[in-house]
UniProtKB/TrEMBL annotation:
Substrate binds at residue 159. Its EC number is 6.2.1.5. Pfam families: CoA_binding, Ligase_CoA. GO terms for biological process: tricarboxylic acid cycle. Pathway: Carbohydrate metabolism; tricarboxylic acid cycle; succinate from succinyl-CoA (ligase route): step 1/1. Belongs to the succinate/malate CoA ligase alpha subunit family. GO terms for cellular component: succinate-CoA ligase complex (ADP-forming). This is Succinate--CoA ligase [ADP-forming] subunit alpha. The gene is sucD. The keyword Ubl conjugation does not apply.
Length: 290
């Protein structure tokens, strides 16, 4: 059992006729993902990467039973694309788009809470269940099916964690890139909770960044409810205060936002904290007693 996406998910790409959407839709299909269609308003009736294009998400839900959407829509229109997917009945909405205005995301988060859906992202690499479904931009070749779940705010560090886990002889159950923006759909704690409750996940890698309280919130949840070993890493250990580093959400405001403070909280909550991504694989092996 995987979380969020699996081999039987009916997946569409919003923005499939654009350069990024078309390229990554092709990569997803090539991996073996069950890609059933795409959406570009005004281009319904065409084909892209061998799947039908629809004018709306509602039409895709009605005609190909879509239940997962991956969004590659330009920032100015991505907020509307998320809300359209929610309104149409999509259960898992994965928004890859970077640079969506914060004001748009405030409206989006308020709007979608009334719908039975889960948003991953925006500004994220997507979700990957190795051997079953690739939804987003994660490179398929570094993943192997297995029993380690990965949650990360950073796209490239997601790949590093995957590579570490694979090289240590363990594969991944589901990898969730939650995104690096200040306002995102699914938090670190919520993603960890999904994997903690997944019977096919034995251990979890949690990668965070400076800024915000998401990692601390997840750590307190793990302390109270954790049943599996968690290996944690915080990026931005040398970041200066008051300066955005990479992601829009990665900015040190107060003392609690620093990498040092987060690592301390995580360690106190029983998480196996590493100071370098290079230690993730061997630390997980040790934590599992393998």
């Amino acid at each position: 059992m995987a979380v969020l996406v699996h081999k039987n998910s009916n997946i569409i790409v919003q923005g499939i006729t654009g350069k990024e959407g078309g390229f990554h839709a092709g990569q997803m299909k090539e991996y073996g993902t069950n890609l059933v269609g795409g959406v570009t308003p005004g281009k319904g009736g065409q084909e892209a990467v061998g799947v039908p294009v629809f004018n709306s998400v509602k039409e895709a839900v009605e005609k190909v039973n879509a239940d997962v959407s991956v969004i590659f829509v330009p920032p100015a229109f991505a907020g509307d694309a998320i809300m359209e997917a929610a309104t149409a009945g999509i259960k898992v909405i994965i928004c890859i788009t970077e640079g969506i205005p914060v004001q748009d995301m405030v409206k989006v988060r308020s709007y979608i809470k009334d719908f039975d859906c889960r948003l991953i992202g925006p500004n994220c690499p997507g979700v990957m269940t190795p051997g079953e479904a690739k939804c987003g931009i994660m490179p398929g070749f570094i993943h192997n099916p297995g029993r380690i779940g990965i949650v990360s705010r950073s796209g490239t560090l997601t790949y590093e964690a995957v590579d570490q886990v694979t090289k240590a002889g363990m594969g991944q159950s589901t990898c969730i890139g939650i995104g690096g923006d200040p306002i995102i759909g699914t938090t670190t704690k919520e993603a960890v909770e999904l994997l903690m409750n997944d019977p096919d996940t034995d251990g979890i890698v949690m990668i965070g960044e400076i800024g915000g309280t998401m990692e601390a919130d997840a750590a307190y949840y793990i302390k109270e409810h954790g049943t599996k070993p968690v290996v944690g890493f915080i990026a931005g250990q040398t970041a200066p205060k008051g300066r955005t580093m990479g992601h829009a959400g990665a900015i040190v405001g107060g003392h609690e936002d620093t990498a040092e403070a987060k690592m301390k909280i995580m360690a106190e909550c029983g998480i196996h904290v590493v100071s370098s991504p290079a230690e993730i694989g061997k630390t997980m092996v040790a934590a599992l007693g393998k």
